[in-house]
Design brief:
The chain has 503 residues and is α/β, with parallel strands linked by helices. 40% of the residues lie in helices and 20% in strands. The chain contains 16 helices and 15 strands.
Length: 503
């Protein structure tokens, strides 16, 4: 794709707008213009009174344009007016060019609820929130209502969060096999799986370090989330060692939530569930993604639908209090009828949480090698599939409680978590809304230091790959630097607070 920008324009923002209509596109200043290369031209102008923008999409002989002007005196408390003007011009051109209206309008970014939350905090009711989302972001009535409802449902959890709270994420980047759509840092070969014992030893050291910081700061650990990868790739004995380390450092009975991802049904057995339950874990995920065995085989999952039902029964009989089940709408080879059957069968089990993702093509995923055919801006019948899941969840008594979006999803659609009343997964809200510090250990993990009062958010990265994480030459140095950064954050925060106290 070729971009031609005139005026004071943020190129990245225009690229995100382009991806609404051209998912999977790459941007190069040296792109050679041919009949099959889209050329997007955007012009932006600012005067004392107004912002104005003009956009054109051209590919071969096909051309469409859009334009927008907004007066600065018009009150805009929840939007960046210059972005709205650019977005509306691009949106008009795109909808004309494709004869397709994306349901999320010009809203880009991973956390749509931040926009709605700002309105909610300023006293807007759901009807007023919906109106702003429709008029300023051009969202469909259905998506505006969904986002407004989630904002209200999230609020009771967000408002109850104490200032001294934090969470802990533990990365187990290993899986029995690698899914074709996966872009996570996860490893499945026998050689890499053989690293698990050494990896676990290093992880325990980092856990001691994190808990030391938590004690130093007098923080209250709210949630623990063990993710991956697939943590239940670990043996029952290895899980026992990991969970025992956590119990040594904190009273798990005081946690609001304690989660172990058990996403792959082929990694679950009664002994692992027993160990998990005995150590006080309250929540697990068992994620078939689909209950169509042909599609499962096509995306590299080694289990069957029958394996999922067996694993779910083991977890229920093992006394796990909360179970989450994920499905993905739009998987390669799966249409509306197959997906809707999966929705019906999962909801019949009455899991406490039910999460529906929209298929997203990541650059690092094996499925991306298929090419452009895996992308679809209109989304085919995926929009119908997502709509069905939301209607069925509502009719079954589930409430939507968190939402996030990604680039390059089929149909530019969303990922939504549903829960039975009082069963919401709080960690999901905390991580998406950046509400408090989430310490993270393990390869590929990211600690997010957050102080909302002073608008301080910083991210510290662990080494990306397990072999880097375990490198004898680097691991101790990286470990020391990692904890130095965390303590430096708190030192600067203390200085800010001290300065405020001296005023």
């Amino acid at each position: 794709m070729k971009l031609i920008l005139n005026g004071d324009i943020n190129p990245y923002y225009v690229q995100t707008l382009c991806l609404i209509f051209f998912p999977g596109s790459k941007f190069s200043e040296n792109e050679e213009i041919t009949d099959d290369v889209p050329v997007v031209t955007v012009s932006f102008n600012e005067t004392e009174e107004a912002f104005s923008a003009w956009a054109q999409i051209k590919m071969g002989d096909s051309v469409a344009t859009g334009e927008c002007t907004e007066l600065k005196k018009k009150k805009k408390t929840f939007v960046d007016l210059s972005k709205v003007v650019l977005g509306k011009a691009m949106f008009e051109a795109g909808t004309k060019f494709f004869a397709h209206t994306p349901p999320w309008g010009i809203l880009t970014g991973i956390r749509p609820s931040k926009i709605a939350r700002k309105m909610y905090d300023e006293g807007y009711d759901p009807a007023q929130i919906r109106k702003v989302l429709r008029n300023e972001y051009l969202m469909s009535t259905k998506k505006a209502a969904l986002l407004a409802n989630i904002t209200v449902n999230e609020a009771k959890i967000i408002d109850a969060l104490s200032k001294d709270s934090c969470s802990l994420y533990i990365s187990i980047p290993f899986c029995p096999t690698r899914c074709a759509y996966c872009s996570f840092i996860s490893f499945a070969t026998k050689r890499l799986l053989s690293m698990i014992p050494e990896y676990l030893d290093r992880l325990l050291l980092d856990l001691d370090g994190v808990f030391e910081v938590i004690r130093e700061r007098g923080l209250r650990l709210s949630t623990v989330y063990i993710g991956g990868g697939t943590p239940t790739t670990l043996s029952a004995q290895q899980l026992d060692v990991l969970l025992s380390k956590i119990e040594e450092n904190t009273d798990v009975s005081l946690l609001e939530e304690y989660t172990v991802e058990a996403g792959r049904p082929d990694t679950i057995d009664a002994e692992k569930i027993r160990v998990i339950k005995e150590h006080g874990v309250t929540r697990i995920s068992i994620n078939p993604q689909t209950l169509n065995d042909t599609v499962l085989e096509g995306i590299g999952r080694r289990h069957t639908a029958a394996d999922f039902f067996k694993a779910y029964e083991i977890a229920r009989e093992g006394g796990i209090k909360y179970i989450n089940t994920d499905l993905i709408a739009g998987l390669p080879g799966e249409g509306y009828r197959s997906f809707s059957r999966s929705v019906d069968e999962v909801l019949a089990l009455r899991p406490e949480n039910f999460t529906v993702h929209t298929f997203c093509v990541k650059k690092a995923a094996d499925v991306a090698k298929i090419g452009a055919d895996v992308y679809s801006a209109p989304g085919g019948d995926v929009r119908k599939s997502v709509d069905y899941s939301q209607l069925k969840a509502k009719s079954a008594g589930y409430l939507p409680y968190y939402l996030y979006k990604q680039k390059n999803t089929v149909g530019n659609l969303e990922n939504v978590g549903f829960a039975l009343p009082e069963c919401e997964g709080k960690y999901n809200i905390y991580i998406m809304e950046e509400l408090h510090t989430i310490f993270a250990v393990g390869a590929g993990s990211v600690t997010k230091m957050v102080d909302r009062e002073h608008n301080m958010i910083e991210r510290y990265f662990m080494p990306k790959y397990p072999y880097e994480y375990l490198s004898p030459e680097n691991s101790e140095t990286m470990r020391r630097e990692y904890f130095d950064k965390i303590r430096d954050f708190y030192a600067r925060l203390d200085a800010v607070r001290a300065a405020e106290g001296n005023k």
